[in-house]
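PROTEIN DESIGN WORKSHEET
SECTION A - STRUCTURE
LENGTH: 420
TOKENS:
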């Protein structure tokens, strides 16, 4: 296995960093998230037309670039460095793989070209706060009750003479307030034949949103991840793929690849937060010397550097082997939380002001854990999938308990003393 990046990947990273460096300073990011769309439309089109960013993982026959998950992860890392507000996560990371995996030939031909060139944005609508469960990141999604389970709440799908109709609500949908296409997870079949399926909703027509669809933008902790409340009141929908398609397995597979991309994005944000902190303590003076020259500060930054580098290694490995995505995501979210927290602390008095840039990274860390974690549940579920808590040779369960109690990471580094 050759772990080095190709010349094309290095060039893509350099070009993307150059474009984002010019267009995504802290002030530009804050201005973009406060627009109606929640992102800079002009920049999104530039990224789509110049780099083909939303079509990175789309096959060339559908107008995409046809690259590997590693290329998408590298793009997400650069987007994470500047906390880029864009439809990239919702469209390219969550919805596009599901359309590719489950869609019929006609659906792929109709949807993938628009998703690849950025002209069509999409959002995955999951009821309640169950996104991490639906993607099988923090627990198995096979029960399907997170989509409604036949009870009140969630989203229900009913077949009528005119086709399928959806009823219900999804309260936290990434980019759900403006996306042109909604991919809705809904419960269908009643009690006797209960199952969870995915449905396509063409959210807009010539007069705006389709009848029965009510969407409002939510106030989110992390402004750079716009969220919307989606209410469905007798909305026409089309099943994604064949009626017997295994939506739960496809969601779990998408969750693993999404976790790898999210890990890379979090690593990019963590590295940038650390770099800004190192730059600041190098020029900020106290008692006649740079704050960064104090030994206690050096030790804190050195610990952060090791943590971020370990998370980067885990994220790159997960891009090559998506099965490791959830563990890499846990490592990366922990590194981001630590880097953002220390950035606020080491920036001193200005770091504690709500308007300072350090809070953008801190909010991203907190919001990502709420959406896709928390860290301890990501690790616990990964351990369960690996069989660490199941029957096996003597000492396996005990070893898992020691690993959990000592904070063992994806790279096998223990940060506390192991007592045998």
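SECTION B - SEQUENCE
RESIDUE ASSIGNMENT:
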């Amino acid at each position: 296995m050759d772990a080095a990046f190709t010349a094309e990947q290095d060039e893509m990273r350099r070009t993307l960093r150059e474009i984002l460096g010019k267009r995504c300073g802290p002030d530009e990011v804050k201005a973009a998230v406060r627009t109606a769309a929640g992102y800079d439309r002009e920049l999104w089109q530039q990224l789509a037309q110049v780099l083909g960013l939303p079509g990175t993982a789309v096959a060339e026959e559908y107008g995409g670039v046809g690259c590997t998950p590693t290329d998408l992860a590298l793009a997400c890392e650069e987007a994470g460095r500047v906390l880029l507000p864009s439809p990239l996560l919702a469209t390219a990371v969550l919805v596009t793989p599901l359309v590719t995996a489950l869609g019929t030939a006609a659906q792929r031909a109709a949807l993938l070209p628009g998703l690849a060139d950025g002209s069509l944005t999409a959002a995955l609508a999951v009821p309640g706060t169950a996104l991490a469960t639906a993607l099988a990141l923090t627990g198995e999604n096979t029960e399907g009750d997170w989509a409604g389970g036949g009870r009140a709440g969630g989203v229900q799908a009913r077949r009528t003479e005119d086709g399928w109709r959806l009823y219900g609500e999804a309260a936290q949908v990434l980019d759900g307030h403006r996306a042109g296409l909604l991919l809705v997870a809904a419960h269908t079949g009643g009690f006797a034949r209960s199952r969870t399926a995915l449905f396509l909703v063409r959210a807009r027509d010539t007069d705006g949103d389709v009848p029965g669809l009510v969407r409002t933008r939510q106030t989110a902790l992390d402004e750079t991840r716009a969220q919307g409340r989606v209410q469905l009141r007798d909305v026409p929908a089309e099943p994604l793929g064949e009626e017997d398609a295994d939506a739960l397995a496809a969601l779990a597979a998408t969750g693993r690849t999404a976790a790898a991309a999210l890990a890379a994005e979090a690593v990019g944000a963590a590295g940038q937060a650390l770099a800004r902190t190192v730059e600041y303590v190098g020029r900020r003076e106290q008692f006649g010397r740079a704050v960064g020259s104090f030994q206690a500060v050096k030790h804190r930054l050195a610990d952060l550097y090791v943590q971020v580098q370990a998370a980067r290694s885990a994220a790159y490995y997960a891009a090559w082997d998506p099965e490791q995505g959830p563990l890499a995501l846990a490592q990366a979210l922990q590194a981001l939380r630590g880097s953002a927290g220390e950035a606020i602390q080491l920036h001193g008095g200005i770091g504690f002001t709500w308007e300072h840039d350090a809070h953008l990274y801190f909010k991203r860390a907190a919001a990502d854990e709420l959406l896709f974690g928390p860290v301890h549940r990501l690790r616990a579920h990964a351990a369960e999938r690996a069989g660490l808590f199941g029957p096996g040779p003597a000492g396996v369960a005990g070893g898992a308990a020691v690993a959990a109690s000592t904070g063992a990471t994806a790279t096998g580094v223990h940060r506390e003393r192991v007592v045998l």
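SECTION C - NOTES
The longest helix spans residues 247-283.
Confidence is low (pLDDT under 50) at residues 392-420.
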